């Protein structure tokens, strides 16, 4: 099948399929007599694997590692689990970071009057040369004052 049909069947855009081919996540596609890429069932299966891994937030490197393990029948599931656990830690760190950003923005929005006056604590903090940890205006929820 051509790249358009492969994109439709796998849920990955043609542009990303070309990218995955250029980075080695998928092998170069067979070519038709006219030079067009030609994908088979195994290519679509591999692309769907990549899409599901991407949906879980795995990086290209992690996906390459997972693909290698997927194709290795002598693999140890402990290797797969280690990749998943490391990814979980990365996701949890990102969640903490996003929560800190949310808390800071909530603090800044709460300090802004949001009226006709030009004074705005949000803009004042964004223009400030203070270190990032000084962006908050009040202690975090649940923080102990000392």
List the helices and strands and how they pair.
Elements: H1 3-10, H2 14-23, E1 30-31, E2 37-38, H3 41-55, H4 60-70, H5 77-111, H6 121-127
Antiparallel strand pairs: 1-2
Which overall shape is indicated by the principal axes computed on the Cα atoms?
Answer: elongated
Main sheet makeup = 2 strands, antiparallel
- Order of strands in the sheet with most strands: 1-2
Low-confidence stretches: 138-146
Helix content: 55-70%
Strand-pairing-aware structural class: mainly alpha
Number of DSSP-assigned strands: 2
Radius of gyration: 24 Å
Cα distance spanning the termini: 66 Å
Give me the oligomer status.
single chain
SSE topology string = HHEEHHHH
Explained architecture:
The protein has helices at residues 3-10, 14-23, 41-55, 60-70, 77-111, 121-127, and strands at 30-31, 37-38. It is elongated. The chain has a two-stranded antiparallel ribbon. 59% of the residues lie in helices and 3% in strands. A hairpin with a 5-residue loop joins β1 and β2 (37-38). It has 6 helices and 2 strands, in the order ααββαααα. Mean pLDDT is 89; it is low at 138-146. It has 146 residues and is mainly α.
Q: Can I get a quick summary?
A:
With 146 residues, the chain is mainly alpha-helical. The protein contains six helices and two strands. Strand 1 (30-31) and strand 2 form a beta hairpin.
Question: Which key features would you list for this structure?
Answer:
146 residues; mainly alpha; 2 strands; 59% helix; disordered C terminus
């Amino acid at each position: 099948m051509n790249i358009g049909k492969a994109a439709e069947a796998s849920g990955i855009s043609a542009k990303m399929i070309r990218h995955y081919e250029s980075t080695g996540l998928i092998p170069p596609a067979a070519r038709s007599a006219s030079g067009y890429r030609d994908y088979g069932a195994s290519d679509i299966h591999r692309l769907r694997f990549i899409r599901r891994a991407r949906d879980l937030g795995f990086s290209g490197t992690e996906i390459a590692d997972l693909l290698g393990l997927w194709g290795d029948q002598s693999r140890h599931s402990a290797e797969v689990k280690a990749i998943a656990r490391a990814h979980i830690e990365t996701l949890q760190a990102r969640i903490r970071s996003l929560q800190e950003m949310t808390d800071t923005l909530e603090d800044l929005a709460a300090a802004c009057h949001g009226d006709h006056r030009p004074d705005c604590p949000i803009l004042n903090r964004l223009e400030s040369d203070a270190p990032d940890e000084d962006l908050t205006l009040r202690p975090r929820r649940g923080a102990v004052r000392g």
